[in-house]
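Build the 3D complex.
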Amino acid sequence: MSVLTGPVEIVGTGLIGTSIALACRRAGLDVLLSDTAPEHVRTASGLGAGRPRTPEDVPQLVVVAVPPDALGTTIRAALDAAAPDTVVTDVGSVKAAPLDAVAGHPAASRYVGSHPMAGTEHSGPLSANPFLFDGRPWAIAAGPGAAPAAIRVVQALVELCGALPVRLTPAEHDKAVARTSHVPHLLASLVAGTLAGAAPEHLALSGTGVRDVTRVAGGDPQLYSQIIGGNASAVAALLAEVRDRLDLLLEAVGSGDRAGLESLLSHGLAGTRAIPGKHGGPPQPMVELHVAVPDHPGELARLFADAGDSGVNIEDVRIDHDPGRPVGLVELDVAAERAEELRAALESKGWVTHR
Amino acid sequence: MSVLTGPVEIVGTGLIGTSIALACRRAGLDVLLSDTAPEHVRTASGLGAGRPRTPEDVPQLVVVAVPPDALGTTIRAALDAAAPDTVVTDVGSVKAAPLDAVAGHPAASRYVGSHPMAGTEHSGPLSANPFLFDGRPWAIAAGPGAAPAAIRVVQALVELCGALPVRLTPAEHDKAVARTSHVPHLLASLVAGTLAGAAPEHLALSGTGVRDVTRVAGGDPQLYSQIIGGNASAVAALLAEVRDRLDLLLEAVGSGDRAGLESLLSHGLAGTRAIPGKHGGPPQPMVELHVAVPDHPGELARLFADAGDSGVNIEDVRIDHDPGRPVGLVELDVAAERAEELRAALESKGWVTHR
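Done.
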């Protein structure tokens, strides 16, 4: 039996908070909702995410799910109000700053920060889903003074949500997300910035590469300035390394040093191979198969039906935006050793494919 | 009737050259093949891409499709050997350098450089496809001395391949691809480089964002060092701008200047919106719908069949790699005004969706 028996209080009923609430309700726990916007509580409650918290309620676990800039004060307030056994966690995207904010609090040992790696492009309780965390990494970043019993309660929440607990110190966590999230976001944003105001006939040459590189830069600048600003020291340290390497790159390009340029590109290639593969395993050799697909409803269904009949699993799909024709190119990623089989199966059904 | 009547000679029977050859054969033209590797000519010829060139053949158009570093000398050699009316083009990814290489050649007015925006991740004639260029932009970058008749022949080739001609000067072309391709590639490579050698428990927090940003950095370093090195001055100029902006970013992050950080992120957001949308139109408001899909053959087919039944067109698809579970999250991009309709249709068929 889980050590998490409830009630669970959710402070902040946005996308993440309401999704956690729904997952807890699904597991049969009593869920208490609070938010500075009462209409959010009503909406979340109407979705079956729990009931408004009353002053008599005594939660076992408080989950603080508020915007980055409000984390510290909200966590302290939760500890101030907590019963002697209540555990407090938060789901903010940085972990050293909230820990600093509770330093010296008499109940600080019952605070254990955490961070689910799940979608943040959309917001609000209406986008919530109890499966949001299914199979996703969820960092648990306990401070050195955290009580083991409190850590166990937070770990139970992570497991209840179907996520994969990843234990890191708060400082390690912040360095990790600087590397895997914040610095990539900033560099994507710099690349995207070079497109703003460019001549349309130049932008007409945009292919899939630049779309991929810049996609995350489409996120909300206000939210990301809070997230990244809250992790300033880890981000600045890594960004300074990137700047130094950019200087080397600029020197290699400017001086015609092909070997230097190739060496920097090879370092990048090695980095792409370091990203863990599907299901947490080592990266698998994949092959891309391109298929021409008429751009109207039903054609993708026919393609995937034919692909499904082949018995070859498709690991990833992308539709290559085609700037001029009512035909899309669909890119199917499949395990290298099954690619020919899939290609033959699709060609036999009349699809035009190429590698 | 097209001004392109053949024969067309393809010099370099790799992916691009053989694909052009196949498109020309499909249009009924006589195609002559040559390559420094005789086995490539045999392979391409075996695929129906044309016949080996003989000394007696007189091509109307020579298409030079060789690696970047060999472009200049191969184009000059083609002009040296050309009959008085033969036109020469190339499909290299930079355009100022090959034009410089033919400067002063007596037949220089019959050289018109071009550049199809089509896949280069794979190589060799076996990956070739006559539809490779269908609907893709194809830059035509004539120098100031190019003969109008020569430009018309190259334009006819572009149209025969089903591509969309984009007229630019060679210098403009090189600036455009520095912006839409080379600098994004280099920055993706720098981001990827920060992952090389990082702790596996840090990399475990990698989400879709960093995978998107770094995807192009998986390209062949040797090929890209030739491509980017061949466009050194345009790349270095833009890269220097990015470096200056990175310094501003570093200062904003380091000094806690949230407004400055947000302003840089907003500039990036504006850039993502400048990229042309599907079918060359203005970017459309899109919404992402996430659907949980069991990770085995047939489930994607069922999803797309249900989506097809709804009559809502799916503009893009991505499978979100799920590091721990045999369930994938599929992200469907649809026009904002049709999203609720699709969501309702899928939910009614038992799919679990969220925005």
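The CA atoms of residues 12 and 279 of chain B lie 31 Å apart.
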